[in-house]
Each structure stands twice: as structure tokens, then as C-alpha cells.
């Protein structure tokens, strides 16, 4: 009896007097079979999580929760955007929403969530979020905060990319090549960023961006930008000295 109480209250299992974390029972729901299977495969990489099943449509979600009784339901924001009326009936467990690209939770969403994770989160970060919300602790991923702060300040996705490249020490010319835009356009984005954050120069802009939460060490936008390098083109004549920009090499 005592063993059962300890296990339920603390989220641990007791075997021969040894306490160990009990895997969190999780159900996954996403918009479409491919997305649901991918999200399920992601959380199965952690031994701290036990996948009880996944749903690829709104119609499959409620029966899954009712029959499997998960401790945490992980819902992709794409499903929430497609069905803002989504609900889980009498389910009393935690709901963790994972924000996928281009799917911010709609304002009319009726589902109560305990936490917000991000598609940019690593498996370890996602596991940490799951364990927190299972314990009743509200959770917001740092990657979500970055986007939230960006929206609050009014920084566009392109401006965010420029900001990351400035923080990485790229010149205006290098940024233009990296994003396949003109240097004049880069200057326009930099001027817009400086105006929005009241920055004196680019160094001040980067400092203010970190303070405002627009940038952090593992900024998601950095992962979207392929590395770039200049190499001598084998087709260019020896006298021309032309360089070719190779993306992702």
C-alpha cells in the first residue's frame, strides 16, 4: 500500500527498496498520420516516457484518451489549428501543446493546456517538459518564448534571420549572400530592427535582442540556415577569380 502511494504521489517506482523515476504515460495527437507517427517516434527515444498510443485525427483523440488514460497528452498545434473546438471531455491529466512551424494556437482554442513545447526542442528538452507538466508545473519552452517575444516586438521572420546572422558576426555582404537577397534589402532590415529596438548600432542591437529574449544561445532560426562557404569555381577561368557560394556544404 505504501509503495503504491509513493509511486503515485512522487512519480517513482520502488523495486527492492530502490527508487527510480517511473516512465510518464503519454498519448500523442497530431494532424495527419505522418506527423503523428513522427511525433510518437520522437518521444519514444526517451526511456522516461511510455507511449500509450497516438491519434492522427480529432475523431481518434477522445477514444484514445478514454481507453488508455495517459498522464500527459501531447498535442501538435497543427491539429489545434484545424480544430480549435478540440476538447478532451472529463480528462483530468496534463496537456502539453507542441508548436509546429506556422501553427500558433488559435485565439478561439478552448482546450486548456498545461505547457507549451516547441518543434525545435530536443528529445531531452521535450522529455523535461513532459515530466514538468505531469507534476502539475506549467511549462513554456525557451524556444517558444523566443517566438513570443519576437511577435511582441513585431520582428518578422526575415528580420529574425538577419538578426541571427548579425549576432554570428556576418557582414552585410555575407548576410545578403546567405539569404539570397540584395545588400540594400539587408540594410533595410537592419534599419527596421534598430528602429524597433531603439538600438544605436549593430552591436547595441544584438545586446538588446538578447535582453529582450529575441536571441538565445540555441536560437531556432540558426538551425534553419545552412552553413555557407566560398570556393573557387572549377568552371571559372584562372584570371576571373570568380567564387561560387555553396549552401549546406
TrEMBL record:
| Pfam families (alphabetical) | GerE
Indicate the transmembrane segments per the record.
none
Sorted alphabetically, the keyword list is:
DNA-binding, Transcription, Transcription regulation
Q: Which PROSITE patterns match?
A: HTH_LUXR_2
Occurrences of domain HTH luxR-type (ranges): 148-213
Q: Please list the GO terms describing molecular function.
A: DNA binding
UniProt cross-references to InterPro entries, sorted A to Z: Sig_transdc_resp-reg_C-effctor (IPR016032), Tscrpt_reg_LuxR_C (IPR000792)
Gene Ontology BP terms: regulation of DNA-templated transcription
Can you say what this protein is called?
Answer: DNA-binding response regulator, NarL/FixJ family, contains REC and HTH domains
Q: Please tell me the species this chain comes from.
A: Actinokineospora iranica
Amino acid at each position: 500500500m505504501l509503495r503504491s502511494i509513493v509511486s503515485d504521489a512522487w512519480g517513482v517506482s520502488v523495486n527492492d527498496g530502490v527508487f527510480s523515476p517511473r516512465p510518464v504515460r503519454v498519448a500523442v495527437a497530431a494532424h495527419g498520420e505522418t506527423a503523428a507517427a513522427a511525433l510518437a517516434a520522437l518521444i519514444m527515444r526517451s526511456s522516461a516516457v511510455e507511449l500509450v498510443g497516438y491519434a492522427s485525427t480529432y475523431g481518434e483523440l477522445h477514444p484514445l484518451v478514454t481507453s488508455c488514460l495517459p498522464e500527459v497528452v501531447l498535442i501538435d498545434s497543427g491539429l489545434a489549428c484545424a480544430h480549435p473546438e478540440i476538447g478532451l471531455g472529463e480528462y483530468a491529466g496534463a496537456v502539453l501543446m507542441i508548436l509546429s512551424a506556422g501553427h500558433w494556437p488559435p485565439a478561439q482554442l478552448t482546450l486548456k493546456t498545461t505547457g507549451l513545447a516547441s518543434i525545435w526542442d530536443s528529445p531531452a528538452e521535450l522529455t523535461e517538459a513532459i515530466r514538468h507538466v505531469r507534476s502539475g508545473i506549467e511549462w513554456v519552452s525557451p524556444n517558444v518564448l523566443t517566438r513570443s517575444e519576437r511577435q511582441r516586438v513585431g520582428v518578422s521572420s526575415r528580420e529574425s534571420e538577419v538578426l541571427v546572422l548579425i549576432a554570428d558576426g556576418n557582414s552585410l555582404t555575407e548576410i545578403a549572400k546567405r539569404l539570397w537577397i540584395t545588400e540594400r534589402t539587408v540594410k533595410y532590415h537592419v534599419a527596421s530592427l534598430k528602429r524597433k529596438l531603439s538600438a544605436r548600432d549593430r552591436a547595441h542591437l544584438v545586446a538588446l535582442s538578447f535582453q529582450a529574449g529575441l536571441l538565445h544561445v540555441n536560437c531556432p532560426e540558426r538551425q534553419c540556415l545552412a552553413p555557407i562557404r566560398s570556393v573557387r569555381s572549377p568552371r571559372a577561368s584562372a584570371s576571373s577569380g570568380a567564387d561560387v557560394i555553396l549552401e549546406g556544404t
